[in-house]
Design brief:
The complex is a heterodimer of chains A (325) and B (326). With 325 residues, chain A is an alpha/beta fold. Chain A has helices at residues 2-34, 51-66, 80-92, 109-117, 145-159, 176-189, 207-220, 232-244, 262-269, 284-296, 313-319, and strands at residues 39-45, 69-75, 97-100, 122-125, 139-142, 164-170, 195-202, 226-229, 254-259, 275-278, 303-305, 310-312. In chain A, helix 5 (145-159) packs parallel to helix 6 (176-189). In chain B, the strands form three sheets. A two-stranded antiparallel sheet of chain B has the order 1-2. In chain B, strands 3-6 form a two-stranded antiparallel ribbon. With 326 residues, chain B is mostly helical. In chain B, strand 1 and strand 2 (35-37) form a beta hairpin. Classes of the chains: A alpha/beta (325), B mainly alpha (326).
Chain lengths: 325, 326
């Protein structure tokens, strides 16, 4: 029995070895082909967990085509091991540049070191990694969540009059966007002591979570003037809760959210949300520009912030028809 | 029996008292747009899906089984219904969508029953299959998007009111129906018999397989209705988050209610109390302003305390210590 297993194992190992051999051989050819004009990019996406992410994927695929970049795309389905596998296969295929949105912050050093040894530049998109070795990647392209929080805070400081009680619907506890959007917002409203956060609780970035927390806030807080939700979905949940309490969202209680997905923009255009800070998933164009630069060996800044705006109710009405996501 | 329910009742009262002390307005009830409005109403409304799933789970656990797939089944029901409704505001479309979803859930329950009763796979493994695959199916149905619907008929299921929230009325109706059919007929005894010893009950002439099959189908249909409530409450289906981890809440509710995971004797009243405790706990966290970072610790401490005071051994040890100190 044991003998059988060892034989089987060695057969498998042999197969794997030959597969590796032929794999790298084929990739070698690819490499020489690609050394002409076309750049080959390996992109390891997180998954397809939200409308935001789908828009992000589509933007990267479309912009790659437009820029004449040969894109090898993989979907990790929210699992780090899948992403590591994808990156390893890109290294074997000798792509010119690797880009990925890390599922989690840690555990990337080994695989990125392999990429570095193979002289393949790496670009992080949308999410950062937590590593002491900054030479593992060329640049990080993504939103500045603190900045988003600051924009939300700025609007409130400019538009609030008199004592203002704010309730905050936080994202998933411990997630970078939740921590940073809270921090940026608090920094800005500190300028006006009249504005106070009277309650803050996590709604897990979901509509149900936002609704349940808001229902409880409406009962426990005697006076709520403003809701600050870390994403559109929680804000949409809060709208439902406010309506059920017999109040008018957008008038009796003002709502500020972050993201600007289609459902959120629709509510903004309908006057149920007052202000949305954009978190832009359409970073494909910027990514392709950066990719071309790093392949040529040009210097790029270690941190590139995606171009992001903000929307008031009037701007939402104008922007809604062309909204892609 | 009465004694077993004493501790869950005390735990629930203690939680409610905590709310009363911290936010006196918690118990305030008023009529808003023709229905009751207040903190307690929220507890009932948001606890309805957990209660419904816990009722199904109670019967499954009574047969010595467990169903981990209920959360995924809830997500599938929500996804299928919302995709079917689309942008239509019709009552008929909403009803048809819900009917399709519930039939599909029954089929999923048949699948679970087939794995457990037909193939004899351990329930925890058998239902784990659908727990992981089911969410994938829901994602496939919604194409990874959040499907927002605008249909007043559908909204009634989870957010509607007939004085009390419609959702809790549905859950209580199912609870009453299950209590009647299992306690007024021999069905309850047969379920318990299967849980105590499937082989012995089969030899005694009980159709163990049919019973096991039935409880899994029932649990899946309950999960489906709960999924409809969850998504209808916000008029949107989110395959990622609908019913996420609700299987754990449901199992916890059953256990807090005094039903043993080893199968056999079960208590529906206990399950009702367990679900209420869990939802009151969640609402309490929001109302008394526990910081988001320590929410889980707070919940864990309460749950551990409730479980400890229910264990005769732990109670004996505590009272012994008291005697020793004095």
């Amino acid at each position: 029995m044991l003998k059988k297993i060892t034989t089987a194992a060695s057969v498998i190992a042999l197969c794997a070895l030959t597969a590796c051999g032929s794999g790298s051989g084929g990739a070698g050819n690819n490499g020489t082909n690609a050394s002409g004009d076309t750049i080959t990019m390996g992109f390891a996406q997180v998954g397809a967990e939200s409308g935001w992410r789908t828009a992000n994927t589509k933007s990267i695929q479309d912009e790659a085509k437009a820029a004449g970049i040969d894109l090898k795309f993989s979907d990790a389905q929210q699992k780090q091991e899948n992403q590591i596998k994808a990156i390893r296969s890109y290294i074997q295929q000798k792509v010119k540049v690797i880009a990925f949105s890390p599922v989690v912050e840690t555990g990337w050093d080994t695989v990125l070191l392999e990429a570095k040894r193979a002289n393949i530049p790496v670009i992080l998109t949308d999410r950062a990694i937590d590593s002491d070795d900054k030479s593992l990647y060329k640049t990080f392209l993504g939103s500045d969540f603190v900045e988003e929080g600051k924009k939300a805070g700025d609007w409130l400081v400019q538009n609030a009059s008199g004592p203002t009680n704010v309730v905050e619907l936080q994202g998933t506890t411990g997630a970078a966007p939740a921590i940073d959007r809270k921090k940026g917002f608090e920094e800005k409203i500190a300028a006006k002591p009249d504005i106070k956060i009277v309650a803050s609780q996590t709604g897990d970035f979901t509509r149900s979570g936002g609704k349940q927390v808001m229902e409880a806030f409406l009962k426990s807080q005697p006076k709520i003037d403003v809701v600050y939700a870390h994403n559109d979905d929680m804000g949409l949940g809060a709208i439902e809760a406010i309506k059920a309490a017999g109040k008018v969202p957008g008038k009796d209680i003002k709502i500020i959210t972050v993201d600007a997905v289609k459902d959120g923009m629709t509510a903004l255009a309908n006057g149920e949300i007052n202000y949305i800070v954009e978190c832009n998933p359409l970073l494909g164009k910027q990514l392709m520009e950066l990719a071309k630069k790093v392949v040529k060996g040009e210097e790029v800044p270690p941190r590139v912030v995606t171009v992001e705006g903000t929307f008031t109710q009037e701007q939402a009405k104008a922007a809604l028809p062309q909204r892609q996501y | 029996m009465k004694n077993r329910l004493l501790w869950p009742i005390l735990a629930l009262i203690a939680l409610l008292l905590l709310n009363l002390v911290v936010t006196p307005s918690f118990f305030a009830l008023r009529i808003q747009d023709g229905h009751l409005y207040g903190g307690l109403v929220d507890v009932l409304k948001n606890g309805a899906p957990t209660l419904l799933i816990a009722i199904g789970m109670t019967l499954v656990i009574a047969t010595r089984g467990i169903d981990l797939s209920v959360g995924a089944v809830a997500a599938i029901a929500a996804a299928v219904t919302c995709v079917h409704i689309g942008t239509s505001p019709d009552v008929g479309t909403a009803l048809a969508g819900m009917a399709i979803a519930l039939v599909l859930c029954a089929v999923l329950g048949l699948w679970n029953g087939f794995l457990v009763a037909g193939l004899g796979i351990q329930p925890i493994i058998a239902t784990l299959v659908l727990m992981t695959a089911g969410r994938g199916i829901a994602m496939l149905v919604t194409e990874g998007q959040i499907i927002t619907v605008n249909n007043d008929a559908y909204r009634q299921v989870g957010a509607g009111f007939v004085v009390l929230p419609v959702s809790i009325l549905i859950s209580l109706a199912v609870l009453g129906l299950v209590a009647l059919t299992t306690r007024k007929t021999a069905l309850g005894m047969l379920i318990e018999a299967v849980g105590v010893n499937p082989e012995a009950s089969r030899l005694a002439g009980v159709r163990s397989r049919t019973i096991i099959w039935t409880v899994y189908v029932f649990a899946a249909v309950c999960a489906g209705i709960a999924g409809l409530m969850i998504s209808s409450n916000v008029s949107a289906a989110d395959a990622n988050s609908n019913g996420l981890w609700i299987e754990m809440d449901a199992i916890l509710a059953v256990v807090i209610g005094g039903t043993s995971l080893a199968g056999g004797r079960y208590s529906l009243t206990g399950t009702l109390l367990g679900s209420l405790i869990i939802q009151t706990l969640t609402t309490t966290v929001y109302t008394i302003g526990v910081a988001a970072e320590v929410t889980l610790v707070f919940k864990a401490v309460v749950v551990i305390t409730v479980c400890l005071i229910q264990s005769p051994k732990a109670r004996a040890a505590l009272s012994f210590r008291k005697v020793a100190v004095s």
